[in-house]
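Why does this matter for the project? Reviewers at the last site visit asked to see concrete outputs rather than summary tables. In response, this paragraph embeds two records directly. Each consists of the residue sequence and, immediately after it, the corresponding structure tokens. Nothing has been edited or filtered.
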Amino acid sequence: MSTSNYEAVGEIRAATEVPTFCHLLAVAAARHADRFAVSWWDDMEVRTMTWFDYRERVLNLAGAMLRLGVRAGDSVAVLGRNNPEHLMADLAALHCGAVPVSVYPTMAAEQIDHVLADCMPRMIVVEEHPQQQIVRHLPWVVANQPKLVLFDPLDEPNPPTEFTWDELLTLGADSRDWVAEELDSRIAAIESSDPVTIVYTSGTTGFPKGVVLTHDNLLWEVEAMVRTGTVDYDYRAVSHLPLAHVAERLWSLYLPMRLGGHVFCCPEPGRLIHTLQTHRPSFVMTVPLVWEKLHAAAQRVIGTAEFDSRRADLDRDRQILRQVAHARLEDRPVPAPDAVAAVRAREGLLRDVRRTLGLDKVLFASTGAAPMSHDLRIALAAIGVDIHLGYGLTETSGLAACDRLGSGGRDSVGLPLPGTDIRIAADGEVLVRSRGNTTGYWRAEDSAGLFTDQWLHTGDLGYFDAAGRLHITDRKKDLLITSSGKNIAPAAIENRLAGKSFIDAAIAIGDDRPYVVALLTVDPTLLAGFAEQWHLGETSMGALIDHPAVLAEVDAVIEQVNQGLSRPEQVKKYRLLPDAWSSRTGELTPTFKLRRNVIAGKYRDVIADLYS
């Protein structure tokens, strides 16, 4: 089966009429000169830069990079969190005709060295102190001595290869006239087919591969997203996910240029709610894990004394929103009285709850990068936050399909973007054809098998429902085949378990085994709350995960989940784990996907015991 949304759409980039993002930034600086472009925290104070000043600073930095020997075609790596320096270093490299590469700061040293050795940067911009020490001693850096620019160095830089950020700014301002002709020449020489970035996939099975995305790819992607109507308004967003991920690059770098939007940089997860409260974004895209934390924060707000006297009204409003969300996601009609009651519920006390979290002005809330459980989606709808799902890969420039306002269905990831063709191969694999598709990997040999004709192999399994909405069932390579020959999609099990009660993350095991088992991690805060509620008298994690009352709760969750699964899919045994999984400890990628082989190796004995 195949579907194309708006097949008649031709050159959807025509609305921008620019060949590169360097030209688009110039348009934004001229058209929106006095509008806010970027804000950030300076201790507890908010600092802001206009579009005119943003571009001026980028051009100054580009001049400094020219003076330090960055050539057209070189790469410039940035290891940093979400801050204006990261954004400006990225765009400055682009104006030199170089290729910016954001590197996940949470990667292990071996992984960082692999990325740098692959893209061979002429310059590396490094923010945090731990990364500065790591980068200085990486084998590739020691051997090749690229220029290092340190945001806030712990000690004196070592000339001639190390510079501070302030030195770079000063050099750029002093060199502006001297390099003006060369900079103009570099910008004019950039073509739409040139790389705008190399994005390294997070690598669930091994070292990441560099995906080349061109100006044409990402300009096309941005225009397609604008046409969906999901971002085409007074665009305000919070930059908080890693800029090494293509989705965050879209929200923080490319879409704001097209829309003259305003981005607030939030480099610290602990300050996300404070940043939301300050910025009041109109657009929020984040991963399911962060939405879980925002929902937990909403629950804490609802539980405060402020709402005690109106508890019945609040419960009624949440129930009607929950009821309407269930109906809409199940494609059932919503009676007019319920629809009106839902409007009033959004306008009532729940708006105050959303205001407390900084979510009261959100026009479009979305999620991606990992599956979101249906229960969490309904729970967020019950406070007035309707989550829209999307789907795409780094290789498709981010989004290939997404929900539109009012079009979502249960577990669907929406409709193809305008001008994007998606079809399902005979073996169930999702294939994508669009101008957003990568031209290939940085190392040509890695691109073997990526395309058949113009169709990109996603490696995901999926189907279209009767309405033409795409559903993703699992990764093709992640399918479990039990010893009895049953094919099982583990995500279908894991998504039902994760987020239930105090369960945090889940992984299903069963490949070449007689039945499915699960490893489960717990949310310490929610587990402590459960223990307090039932007066268990235990506080240590080790004691709690073995407590009969805790195990009885998990048994009930497993029983409920199994009712919605076929017999081969049902979880026969499980083990609660005291560990938290993260990208730093290796069980998750930087975008929170499970590293199945790492987890299977780490818990080899536990898994063996479950099958003993």
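We now turn to the second protein, recorded in exactly the same manner.
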Amino acid sequence: MNFRQFAYRNVVRNRRVYAAFMLASVFSVMVFFLYSMLLFHPSIEGSALQEISILGMGAANIVLYFFTLFFLFYSMRAFLQARTKEFGILLHLGMEKRQLHKLIFTETLLIGTASIGVGTFFGFMFSKFFFMVVKQLVMLPALPLYLSWKPFALTVGAFLSLFIIISLVAPALIRMESIEELIRGDQKANDTYDFSPVRGFIGFALLSLSYIMAAFTSNSIVIGLSFLLPPLATVGTYYFFTDSLPMVFHYFRARKKFFWRHFRLLAFSEGVIRLKENARMFFIVTIVSTMAFLSVGILASLTSFASQYREMNPLGLVYQSFPGNELEQQHIQRLVNELQEHDIDYNYVRFPVQQQVSSYTDYTVSIIKLSNVNRLARTFDYEPLALKRGEALFLPSTPSAFSQLNNRTVNTVLLESGIEIRISGAYPYQIFPAHAIGMNAIILNDYDYELLSLQQLPASVYYAFNIPDWQRTKDIGLTIDRFVNQSYLNGLNEELHFSFDNPGLNYSVLRISFSLLLFAGLLLAIVFLLAAGSFIYFRLYTSLENDQKQFDVLRRMGLTDHELKKIVNRQLIPQFFVPWGVAIMHSSFAFLSLQVIWDALAEISIVRELTIVLVGLTVVQIIYYYLIRWRYLSHIKAPN
């Protein structure tokens, strides 16, 4: 048997320990390859989708690469420390340190090469399915499978360099103690777990402070808190696992009536030892799980914004013309012709918008005519309203503004015209986009409006197109939209005498972007969760030999299978669900702050989407727990 065969058999012999590590590595390579396949797809070259792919998939690839580097570094360090007994025996038998380093380098490179090969193979196998999903998300006519060297070269090059870095660094991670200490390995005594009460209370205090600040944040401070809270919560989480939890264990161990019960005694005693060994691992699992929750939750909140986009933009097309716009009639006729060519049903109403200064606030008020509003309301099947001479209604700029204005009554004078009006209540239906007419707008009765029109020309003319099948308008007005965008890019926007908004076009871009980002985020989150699960899996199976001996002794003392499951549950549940629970808490309070941001931006609720995310990921964790417990019990019950 030569040296390479010896390294290969070492990897095969430890396959049970390396199983989760290999799974996470293979999945990381596969996801990276799928992202790369979309990045280089010939069908999206030169299109807007390519820009979205570069932004979304490129960023995801970078995050995935550096996270995999951290994951491999941490995992390899843990693997090597768990094999100190084996290394001690090899050194005792005469192996030189140089040869030991070569062995570790060869083993790591073998695992890396296998992961790259298997991950790339499965990535290409699932590429067609991946393209089918992406095609549905971005509504492309076709996204065929293709064969190119670029995705393969990028994936193999990126991960091969990563594994070479880890292979070179890995030998330095071994604690070169005396051979006797290496051979003793995990058999070193595990006595009581030392902890600092001060750090324990600091951990509780930092987490409590982070949660309170996140729960009671406001629009004015939420951006600043987004930079302050993550470091506070991270430090608090570390102290929570290293000192706060041991302090709680110590409190319960001191209560003999609670502690001195046969199952509790065994479970708590073993739990203290596991906590001593795995505090840092629990901290890393919590942070990684929180990253997974937040990545999916934030992207899910974007889809919530897209799903409520129609409520915020009830009109199909919006065109606003200002004085001096010579293209007004030409643009409106073009929009009408394009709608008719595409056989799209529409209704449009022309709104001359007057402006006057209100004596009540000394601010300029935008004014529209009630009969025009009723014409538009009928196209939405809303009941028309009536106003007498001298009466007006507030036109709320947002849904939340309606509740604030509906119960208000204001008596004011329009200063330029001298017309006295009484503004009582707010218009009850949302038929305009937010801030469409203006932040300070009213609906005036027809008689008083006509008096205004006789005295002055309108400040602008607003064309409101109500289009029931509004998503079909993504190809309407593209020439006008490009002209507006080009004017902004060239800095000529001040010379524009009109504005144009196409919610159908905007929604198609948002839907494609958010759906693609959510899909990328889901795959990234799965990598995070697999990595987090692999840490726990590894710790379980590296201590499996000692656990088998302990439970074998207990079985000889009369422990039944039912009692064995009870003890295993009490040992495994904290390891799986305490980090998970802390991650859920972190994410929930982070989402409270995110809701504040969305309230300020668009007044939408993201509770439903985030609840689905958290419940769905929790179900996945429960399934994963029962799968690992089943395998763990089968090994525990197996004869030594």
